[in-house]
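This section describes the prediction task in plain terms. A model, or a person checking by hand, is given the sequence of a single protein chain and must write out its three-dimensional structure as a string of tokens. No templates, partner chains or ligands are provided. The sample shown here is typical of the held-out split.
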Amino acid sequence: MSGKLTAQELDALKLVEFHEKFKPLFDPHPYKVLYGGRDGKKSWSIARALLIIGAHRPCRILCTREIQKSIKDSVHQLLKDQIGVIGLAGFYDVILNEIRGRNNTLFLFAGLSDQTAESVKSFEGIDIAWIEEARNTTKRSLDILIPTIRKEGSEIWVSFNPELDSDEVYKRFVLSPPPGSFVVKTTFKDFPLSWSSDKSRQDRAHSLATDPEEYRNVWLGECRPTVAGAIYTKEIALAYAEKRICRVVYDPRLKVHTIWDLGHADYMSVGLFQKGGGQEYRMIGLIHEHQKKLDWYAAELNKLNLNWGWDWLPHDGHIQDYKAPSAYMILKGFGRRVKPKVGTKLPIPNVPIESGIKAFRTVWHRMIIDEVTCAPFVEAAKRYRRSINKETQTPGPPVHDVGISDLMDMGRYFALVHEKLTNDEELNQRPKAQMAKPFDAGTGLL
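The expected answer:
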């Protein structure tokens, strides 16, 4: 049989419904981005458009997402369903891991998180790459994929429901879209009521009545202040409302105390805090790295011309075994002023995580956080969440997300000792008065 569409197939395609909003999918654009709320027909419209394009000309189309453990996690079934709906069942051959067209069009499926700079080279001949459910796509994955889709006239299509305005895909394709991009927001409101099922309409009404914030995010495609189920949602919202996440000025008259969460393979976090008047606490800086040793952190801190107070270590910072000295001993050896334990009493008490979370909540309203140097800390607070039992839907302990949990652990440690941070003169003489300056990239902490 010829690879061309039959007269019957051409007639069927003429009857395919397409909303006016999505017609630019058939025009040349290097990036085509559909985002918004549930029932916005994003995936449905992209699937149809790709099948139609693939039927008219031979294409290699990569359908991908951040995590794809099996073909069931992909859009394979969605494409299969749409093939039948738009009358192309005789044109496309749906097999286990691929979809092939009569004209040699080929749909491939892969997870981005599994790719490396080497393995992704197999995608160099791709005409169109579709990133579905792109909200969770990492910067690493995008940095690997985008340079690979470089065939003349190739395109990258993106579809997602947004969560945070700081998500990589939202920043890259909505806030600062590349030149020539087609970007459109779509929600259920763009379509006739008849295009939604009874269940969808009932779910929307229930969401609006019981959880307006969820309704705005899930159904209207608006960004949340924090991820769903975040532990510090109210605290983050209050900090923004009171403008306590802002540029923070280093005051040389006040001591700078460091609070540590130790790690090596995981991230290590060091927060820099000053105690101001009126029980105000200023978070003026942050070092957040991984696979660095303590001597590197000590060197980075020692480069800074600051009015140092104490370095506060968690309980494991005072543990020594026959293989290595404790973190306390190592940092002291590099000239740091590390708070010692007194007898069995640790500088930062070793308490359950939940107790630390409660302590952190009590001090949030007194914190002023630098929005530039401490941006990773704020971002982690937005994303720090509890695990949810799939059967009972009840919240459990905090999820251990690499690069997030360590920052929140450091925050908990700060909360447990904040009242002990002082500006006394027991350590060294106060430096001569100097002009206060913003604590920014010039300090070496960015």
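For orientation: The chain is about 30% helix and 20% strand.
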